[in-house]
Amino acid sequence: MKRQRRSYKPRTLLFLDFLYITVGSLLIALAVTWVFVPNKTVTGGVTGISILLYYMFGWKVSVTSLLINIPLFWAGYRFLGGREFALKTLYGILALTIWLQVLEPLKDHPLTTDTLLASIYGGLLLGAGLGIVFRGRATTGGTDLAARLVQKYTGITAGTLLLVIDGSIVTAAGVIFGIERVLYALISLFITSKTIDLVQQGVAVGKVSYIITDHEEAVRQAILFNLVRGCTKLPSTGGFTGEQRPMLMTVVSRSEVSRLKELVRQIDPRAFVIVSDVQEVLGEGFTYAQDQTAHDERSS
Length: 300
Hints:
alpha+beta, Alpha-Beta Plaits, 62% helix, 2 domains
């Protein structure tokens, strides 16, 4: 029986976005209050600046973060536009501020007092939180807004600007806390970056296979009716012979890879097969995407 594609109404999509922002902000606040602050571990962005100012002047991280984000948010809304994005970003800023305030007592009961473990697990929590917020198509403010503003008027890429900003924050942490803290901060930044990618893209959920064979029709039939997977015929030209022949592309789950290779081997032992990971697969038999049409209508 054919599985029906799920659709989401605009209100459901909006609710999910705000849910992502709420949960992501909670994880970010946990990373800051439960791990980074008690271990004097600095990360990038507004959070890193707030931690530095906390140790320099005793200012609350939640208050400092809010005070820095307010002008950044106003400038972003004024010059970058986007009403829905601005609304969700404002919500993200407020949610993070509230969570930081509520969870502030955790700094007296840290998850760990080992600086290396703090860098690792703090980076994981922060990266997971940011990735979830990004999945809600929002941010919690921060230096990414500043980078986008500067990029608009200077042409310098946002990635370069963020690297300069985060590098400056980490360097300042080295001056205040010592060079070892910089090394730990770099570990944390790396783990945060990789975790964001993992949350955004997901783990490898499938395998894509490219098959070049002299028995293309038999292999195609085996994929369609034995594996019950779809496949696509792509034109290809041999680099040595110059001969044109179709190449089959199919995506299967990890558990089906061995069966696919065995089917191809039985039909054509000389077939050329390439198998590689795919991070996310949207479509029948795999992950179903949210109704993008509804989202586009909601964003316009």
